[in-house]
Amino acid sequence: MKIGVIGDDFTGSGDIANTLAKAGARTVQYVGTPIGKLADGSIEAAVIALKTRSVAADDAVAQSLTACRWLVVNGAEQIVFKYCSTFDSTPEGNIGPVAEALLAELDAPLALVCPAFPANGRTLYNGHLFVGDRLLSESGMENHPLTPMTDPDIRRWLSLQTRLKVGHLALQSLRSGDAEAALSLAKRDGEKLIVADAISNDDLMALGRIAKTHRLVTGGSGIAMALPGNFGIRPAVEGRLQFDGVCGPAFILSGSCSSATRTQIAAYCRSHPSMRLDAEDALDPDAVVASCLNFLITHKGSGPLVYSTAEPSEVSAAQARHGRERLAALFEAIFAELAVKAVTAGFRRLVVAGGETSGAVASAFGASALEVGPEIDAGVPVLILDGEPRLAFALKSGNFGACDFFERALHALKGDAS
Ligand SMILES: Nc1ncnc2c1ncn2[C@@H]1O[C@H](COP(=O)(O)OP(=O)(O)O)[C@@H](O)[C@H]1O
Ligand SMILES: O=C(O)[C@@H](O)C(=O)COP(=O)(O)O
């Protein structure tokens, strides 16, 4: 293995696994840190999907270090810490504390910090993160149920999370070819986490090449585009392998309240059976799982959707009544149990919207490894769990995907080209 990735959530891990696979790396995505040795010596990139974005910082650090040690023992020459392209975190962490621990573990002098993902509208300029033409803090992310992003200056936000000195690699330095010199100066000045501007794929490719000798790289999936090339890995000339897909009934679950998901839900509900859960439903998990399962089975064959997705004002009112963490945990547990029961009832294709929600659902199957299939929309691949039964997943990041994502995902999981 050349590249080892520690993903702080499941959709994000699929996102970077997709990037590495497109860049030609033979990639596998693990659900949590595997036990035992890497069996397949031909794997070039391993992505360990954790669910550490919203847990306590010391727990996130401990889990990330365990993942890092497994990757290093199994040959990883470079470690990537993957977080969200919207830098989802709170002032208490977890990006700073985890990056800090990984730097120490790998004895690395510094690491780049670059969430930019231009293909999905996330660009970083003068240390500020934009989503499309909006600053992060005006993009809708300021209303996220768990990690409201209220400051677009990534240098300032990261500095709240770490005692390490935070530096900045400006776009002008990168584009004028001064980046190596700027990083040497940063190292001399004791800067350890270097927020790097990037507004295009070419910028990300340049940053990736600069990171060739770095033991640790941190960022969104964009920063990984150039990394396989540093190891002499090239994309297959003939393109992706044929993907057979998985047949059988499909359903969609959404615990994402992000704006892209809200648009996708509104579009899908117009012509498909859907069932909406509200916060009061979540207080009686057994009853709600039973009624949702009944709904899914009744509409088997029509791609039924169950969602707790709600508008920001509704989410904050419900959180004020019942508690943010409590509601999140209740919904996640409900979706996880429902997914397992639906598979027992014969469903085989699963589309899940939301990173935390996807983490809860995918973990419930006790799987260890997922194969990376074709890309459905930028940053969202098909993932295959080659078990008994064989299942196909689309784990969609909250703000990814076009308006008709759900419908196209159902086709993609079957192996139909979009
Ligand atoms: N109606 C709701 N009220 C409060 N919290 C909710 C509601 N619906 C979902 N949640 C919680 O909000 C969080 C959404 O996060 P996530 O699944 O990562 O979505 P995204 O990818 O859009 O960020 C989850 O923990 C989920 O359980
Ligand atoms: O980098 C990204 O935006 C995604 O890969 C990601 O991490 C998304 O997280 P969620 O929006 O919480 O699904």
Automatic annotation (TrEMBL):
Family label: Belongs to the four-carbon acid sugar kinase family.
Name under which the protein is recorded: 3-oxo-tetronate kinase
Role description: Catalyzes the ATP-dependent phosphorylation of 3-oxo-tetronate to 3-oxo-tetronate 4-phosphate.
Entry's EC annotation: 2.7.1.217
Catalytic activity, reaction form: 3-dehydro-L-erythronate + ATP = 3-dehydro-4-O-phospho-L-erythronate + ADP + H(+); 3-dehydro-D-erythronate + ATP = 3-dehydro-4-O-phospho-D-erythronate + ADP + H(+)
Biological source species: Mesorhizobium sanjuanii
GO molecular function per UniProt: ATP binding; kinase activity
Enzyme class, first EC level, given as a word: transferase
Classification via InterPro entries: 4-carb_acid_sugar_kinase_N, 4-carb_acid_sugar_kinase_N_sf, NBD_C, NBD_C_sf, OtnK
Keywords: ATP-binding, Carbohydrate metabolism, Kinase, Nucleotide-binding, Transferase
Annotated Four-carbon acid sugar kinase nucleotide binding domain residues: 252-406
Stretches assigned to the Four-carbon acid sugar kinase N-terminal domain: 3-227
